[in-house]
Specification:
5-stranded mixed beta sheet; about 150 residues; single chain
């Protein structure tokens, strides 16, 4: 009887479970990010020094979403400066590519926040190739896992 009940619950809940990593990240993002993923776009740009993570609105003039983006990215930049990468780890998993090395080398990464049109950005800069590569791997994983909610520009 328990097996039948468990099977019935699984069949009822199954369609609600994310089919892909991208859908899982999209569905779970509200627990980490205050803005609406369907109204925003994550942009990950790898640079020679590290990378630029930007979040912008999909529609110009969406002031509510811009305010939420700026609030969140300012908070994240401050956490990253302190070596706290808990939010990305919570959303994407602690084993996501590059994250362990980014966390381990946080003291060697310069993190800066700025507002941009329709959103905000965080710039990550490092001097050693190992840390820059870790940032690139971390960005690549986020880009992949955010799916349609992200671009590399």
């Amino acid at each position: 009887m328990r097996t039948l009940v468990a099977l019935a619950v699984l069949l009822a809940v199954g369609p609600c479970l994310a089919d892909t990593t991208q859908q899982h990240v999209h569905d779970m993002s509200h627990g980490v990010m205050p803005f609406d993923m369907s109204k925003t776009l994550h942009v990950f740009v790898m640079t020679e020094q590290g990378g630029i993570q930007k979040v912008i609105t999909r529609k110009d003039g969406d002031s509510d979403q811009v305010a939420l983006i700026r609030q969140h990215l300012a908070h994240e930049a401050e956490a990253f400066r302190k070596g706290d990468y808990g939010d990305p780890g919570h959303l994407h998993g602690e084993t996501m590519p590059g994250l362990a090395d980014v966390k381990a080398n946080a003291a060697d990464i310069t993190v800066s926040y700025s507002e941009v049109q329709n959103g905000a950005e965080i710039v990550f800069s490092a001097k050693d190739l190992h840390t820059i590569t870790a940032i690139h791997r971390w960005f690549g994983a986020q880009l992949s896992e955010h799916g349609a909610d992200a671009t590399s520009e």
